[in-house]
Specification:
49% helix; five-stranded antiparallel beta sheet; 591 residues
């Protein structure tokens, strides 16, 4: 019985590992999902909490800016002194100067009420005159830079080169700092307020966003007004993509939430390290992570135990069975510490193979004895017709007193019977088989002078190879018996050659009538064609011996030639006794 190669999914190894994976993978995936879900929930909660905090602070900033807006609009609506600045100063210089003093005093008086502001200013476009009121915290250098920047804005507005909208609060950049600016137009006079943007961040600096967290103000182009190096180094994206929060950053991830101002073109943004957020996960998540990591660590160990306890012993048995399938009955499963069941199985397997080996040896010995008996029986099957014909030839030669041929005939018969009566011959050298066949040809050549010709060619390097005895002479004898007569000349050609790597082909072809169709069909199907009179028993005997000696490694093919005559091809394994070189051609012709 041979083992079929089963699909991989039907192997025990595959099913055990697959079953383990079916159990482990869903658990691991659930834990991973649960872990990711917990992280998402915590992030959402942290984002929502900080979003609410940012919205609260932005609302407070917008309320403060709204109060300044109301003040500026009320100032423009109630104070008629602005109309004086709307005309050319040279029309009434005294009144213009007096009005400027009044406006300066009023703004200076009102400025402390709006602690968020650093400056109020009034700009007369017809006179290109700027009036500023600064808080005590603004230095003279800063005041001069701000005044020049404000004049530049109005100059660009008049020239049309600056498209900055003056309808809401906007950011004015001086050097590396940003300043929040508001301008209201009253005729040809502008009244406005100005403050350092960093003052808006003072309350947020008290919020704990972690060691690496930041609260930032960003322009309408989402450029950070402070901590620019921090944003660039970590590659933090401050753009608003419409979501509640987003994760960004190069190496370390940051959670970014923001809120746009309702009063101006800027945003308030909180940047929170993701590591700080995950530190706040509940204890259950830590347990799940521990179980997940433990499962990943233990899984290879479980596979190792599964392989050592089950898969390796089974694989050891399978390897032994495959080697036995190849015909190696000397295989035994070596002892290896294992579970009791596999130890018992290995012992039973070794005992069973030993019994099979003993049984096979007994069967082979019986087959060999039977083969020897068959071979001896064949050797003793001397065709009485052949013996009588040989004696008749000697008698006829004696009548004509051809003593040389009588001697040759007697010598040929002696060699013939010596070969036939040799015992214990499972194999003979091809040289001996060829000489016996040529000797048989010579005997038959004396019987059928001028009606039998033959040739036999064989490479010299094959002469010492081993072949079963009578494997060639049997077919020659059958051909002469059925094809050669006194009426027609028949030629028998024998060619022996090596084919492939380790096989010998023996080809016997004659010029007779060939096999009858019914006999040829039975020969090709390896059916017994012998009968009670002994016809074709030699062919059956050769087939039988080849099967016993070579099993399925030998082959006999029977065909009829394209023109006429029978063709027999015998393929047998090459067994060399000793090497030879060269090429010999042995041929004979009838006399």
């Amino acid at each position: 019985m041979q083992f079929r190669t089963l699909p991989l999914f039907k192997s025990l190894r595959f099913q055990l590992i697959f079953g383990l994976l079916i159990i482990v993978i869903p658990i691991v995936l659930f834990m991973i999902y649960n872990n990711l879900y917990a992280i998402k929930v915590v992030r959402n909660q942290v984002a929502q909490s900080n979003k609410n905090l940012i919205s609260l602070y932005m609302g407070q900033i917008d309320r403060n800016l709204d109060e300044v807006d109301k003040y500026l609009f009320n100032f423009a609506a109630q104070d008629t002194g602005l109309l004086v600045l709307d005309v050319q100063r040279d029309q009434n210089a005294d009144r213009y100067s007096f009005t400027k003093i009044q406006l300066n005093n009023k703004l200076l008086k009102d400025l402390p009420s709006y602690k968020l502001m650093d400056m109020f200013f009034v700009y007369s476009e017809p006179n290109q005159d700027l009036l500023t009121v600064m808080s005590d915290q603004v230095t003279y250098t800063r005041q001069e830079a701000v005044e020049n920047s404000i004049k530049t804005i109005f100059q660009d507005q008049r020239d049309g080169s600056n498209q900055t909208s003056l309808r809401e609060w906007f950011m004015l950049k001086l050097g590396d700092q940003y300043f929040l600016t508001r301008v209201i137009k009253y005729g040809n006079v502008y009244i406005g307020a100005w403050t350092d943007a960093s003052k808006l961040m003072v309350p947020l600096n008290l919020v704990d966003l972690g060691n690496n967290g930041r609260a930032l103000l960003a322009t309408d182009h989402f450029e950070a007004m402070a901590n620019q190096a921090f944003v660039q180094e970590n590659q933090i994206n401050l753009n608003d993509d419409g979501t509640d929060y987003k994760l960004t950053g190069k190496d370390e991830k940051f959670l970014v939430v923001g809120e746009k101002s309702g009063k101006g073109r800027f945003s308030l943004i909180a940047v929170i390290p993701d590591s700080i957020i995950l530190e706040n996960l509940p204890f259950l998540r830590r347990i799940v992570s521990f179980i997940l990591m433990g499962s990943l660590v233990l899984f290879p160990f479980i596979l190792f135990l599964l392989r050592k306890i089950i898969l390796i012993p089974i694989n050891r048995i399978m390897m032994a069975m495959r080697r036995i399938e190849d015909g190696n009955l000397d295989v035994r499963i070596t002892y290896s510490p294992s579970v009791i069941e596999f130890d018992k199985m290995n012992q039973s397997f070794n005992r069973m193979i030993s019994q099979i080996q003993e049984l096979k040896i007994n069967v082979l010995e019986e087959q060999l004895n039977h083969q020897k008996a068959e071979l001896k029986h064949l050797q003793l099957q001397i065709n009485p017709h052949f013996f009588l014909n040989a004696l008749n030839i000697i008698y006829n030669l004696a009548q004509v007193k051809d003593f040389a041929l009588i001697q040759e005939m007697a010598l040929c018969l002696v060699q013939y019977f010596r070969f036939m009566f040799r015992s214990n011959m499972a194999f003979v050298a091809l040289r001996d088989e060829v000489e016996h066949t040529l000797n048989y040809f010579r005997i038959q050549e004396m019987r059928f002078p001028k009606n039998l010709t033959y040739d036999l060619s064989v490479p010299d390097n094959l002469m010492d190879s081993l072949v079963p005895p009578l494997v060639i002479q049997t077919f020659v004898e059958n051909t002469i018996k059925h094809a050669v007569s006194m009426d027609k000349q028949v030629h028998i050609g024998i060619t022996i050659e090596a084919i492939e790597v380790n096989r010998i082909r023996i080809r016997v072809q004659d010029t007779g009538k060939g096999f009858p169709e019914d006999v040829l069909a039975r020969l090709q199907m390896e059916m017994d064609i012998g009968n009670g009179e002994g016809h074709h028993i030699g062919i059956w005997n050769v087939q039988r011996r080849l099967r016993l000696l070579y099993q399925d490694q030998a082959q006999i093919m029977f065909t009829n030639g394209a023109g006429h005559g029978a063709v027999i091809e015998i393929l047998i394994p090459f067994h060399e006794k000793k090497g030879g070189e060269g090429y010999a051609s042995i041929a004979g012709r009838g006399r």
